[in-house]
Each structure stands twice: as structure tokens, then as C-alpha cells.
Inverse folding.
């Protein structure tokens, strides 16, 4: 029986070794699989990060280009007005009467005003309105009587809206 026990023990040992080696193989395979998954995730992360960095750089460049080129449309539309001002300036030297010069300057002013209005610029109507700190900048206050108290008496410098957003506050005199 001892031989039989020894054979059985050997078989059991071999079975245990087989199981242990299979478990180690499974563990190594599991470890390798996890290592491979980690490498894949790192690769995805690096690619995603690179894509994001490229997107960030591209949008930053586009923003800079937009800022630099945003005024080009306005400048192109203002060039004819500049040409008209140069012609008016040249006509000042040869003009003998003031009326035609005045009319020329009025025409150039009108053209400039229409060009800027076409781009969304609108002047504020502030005179005789209630003082609003979000639209007006008070330069000084004068006694205007009870009916002018808190109202804009005079406009020193016009305020302007650009597409319904204040781009310059009106400098005003307010009644106290």
C-alpha cells in the first residue's frame, strides 16, 4: 500500500503543481491583460490630450486672426470716407467761398455716419432724459430747478451703442 499511497501522493502533487502552474498562467495572463489595457488607456489618453492641445492652439490662433482681421471690413468701408476727407482738405487750399466747402464737409460727415451706422453704431439720445449711471458719466452738476433735478441738462460728449451694447458712455451735465 505504501507504493499505492506514494503513487497517489505523486499524482496529487502533480495535480496540485498543474493547478498551481495553471493559476500562475492565468494570473500572468490576467496581469498581462491588465498591463495591455493600461497601455491602451494611456495611448488613448495621450492621443486625446494631443487632440485637445491641437484644438486649443488652433482656436487660439483663429481668435487672434479674427481680432486682427475683424477691423479690416470696417477699414475697407472707411477708406472712401478718408479719400473724401483728403479731397476736402485739398479743396480748402483753392476754395474762395465757404459754402461749397461746408457742403462738402457735410457730405463727408454724412457718408461717415452712414458707414458707421451700417456697422451697428448708434448715438445715444441723452439730453432731457433721466440720468442713468449705466449709460452716462456725470461730469458736473448744475442747479436746473425742480423740473431738471436728476435729468441730463447738457451733453458734453455723445455716447454710442454698438449693436445695442454701450461702447462709449455719454459725458453729461446733470441737474441737481
Amino acid at each position: 500500500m505504501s507504493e499505492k499511497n506514494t503513487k497517489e501522493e505523486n499524482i496529487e502533487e502533480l495535480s496540485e503543481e498543474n493547478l498551481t502552474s495553471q493559476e500562475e498562467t492565468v494570473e500572468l495572463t490576467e496581469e498581462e491583460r491588465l498591463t495591455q489595457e493600461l497601455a491602451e488607456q494611456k495611448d488613448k489618453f495621450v492621443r486625446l490630450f494631443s487632440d485637445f492641445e491641437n484644438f486649443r492652439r488652433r482656436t487660439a490662433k483663429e481668435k487672434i486672426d479674427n481680432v486682427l482681421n475683424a477691423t479690416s471690413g470696417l477699414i475697407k468701408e472707411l477708406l472712401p470716407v478718408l479719400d473724401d476727407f483728403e479731397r476736402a482738405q485739398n479743396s480748402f487750399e483753392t476754395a474762395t467761398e465757404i459754402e461749397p466747402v461746408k457742403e462738402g464737409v457735410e457730405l463727408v460727415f454724412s457718408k461717415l455716419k452712414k458707414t458707421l451706422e451700417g456697422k451697428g453704431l448708434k448715438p445715444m439720445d441723452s439730453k432731457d432724459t433721466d440720468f442713468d449711471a449705466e449709460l452716462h458719466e456725470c461730469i458736473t452738476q448744475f442747479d436746473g430747478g425742480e423740473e431738471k433735478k436728476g435729468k441730463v441738462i447738457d451733453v458734453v460728449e455723445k455716447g454710442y451703442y454698438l449693436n445695442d451694447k454701450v461702447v462709449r458712455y455719454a459725458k453729461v451735465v446733470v441737474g441737481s
The radius of gyration is 41 Å. Strands lie at 121-123, 136-142, 152-157, 160-162, 165-168, 170-175. The mean pLDDT is 84.
